[in-house]
Amino acid sequence: MVEYSERQGTPVCMSQSPLEKAVQFHRHVCPGLLMGVRAAEFALQFLRVSPDRDEELVAIVETDSCAVDAIQAVLGCTFGKGNLVFLDHGKHVYTIASRERHRAVRIAQKWGNLRGAEFERFRALAQKTDLSEEEELEREELRGRILEQIMSLPFEELFDYREVQLDLPPRASIHPSVRCVRCGEGVMQTRAVETGQGWLCRPCAGEA
Questions:
Q1: How far apart are CA 131 and CA 137, in angstroms?
Q2: Residues 58 and 10 in one domain
């Protein structure tokens, strides 16, 4: 069922579950996506908030894995709105904050909960491009068991979490653009480098 938001004037599906939203966004089901769904659902419950509409929530993610697609789809925190912050730490850690409630929760995947022979075998099959028919059947059987495990295990067996104090970034703002004197492309002024010859984008200034 699709209904229209009176405030935004855009179609919003009112009947989709968090998992369905994440799968529709990510386009397939995988263990990483489901871990993100569990983290996002828990954050909403812990903070007692609804999915974001206008930057009420902020998500700070320390990985660029599949789970972040679930964070975006379920929580509504996106790069475009400026309330999804990426820290390239390579860690399955997600800090979700509510501006209105002045609360934040840090959620970290527990070490070893998605390891073991079964999971390693699934990972090997998922990365293989020339599967035999038997291997395809084995991969799907393993996928089903792993996905069921992720969605059914108590949250505390998958993640550690704690409430944290967080200085939230300001709400997104629109900045003027300037033209790079070297490549001629437009660049946000706050990201440009001012020189004696004029503005330079960071790649042209050698800061990429």
A1: 9
A2: yes
Q: Quick one: 160 and 198 in the same domain?
A: no
Straight-line distance from the first to the last Cα atom of the chain, in angstroms, rounded to the nearest whole number: 45
Asked whether the predicted pLDDT for residue 73 surpasses 50, the reply is: yes
H helices of 16-95, in order, are 18-26, 31-47, 67-70
Q: Taking the mean position of all CA atoms in its chain, how far away is CA 5? A: 24
Looking at residue 12, what DSSP letter applies? Answer: E
CATH number for the domain including 181? 3.30.60
- Pair 201, 158 in one domain: no
Q: The whole model's pTM is what?
A: 0.79
Q: Note the pLDDT tens digit of each residue in 164-184.
A: 998 887 776 778 999 999 999
Tell me, yes or no, whether 160 and 58 share the same domain.
Answer: yes
Could you say which DSSP state residue 83 is in?
-
DSSP designation for 160? E
Q: How far is CA 177 from CA 158, 174, 188, 200, in A?
A: 44, 9, 4, 11
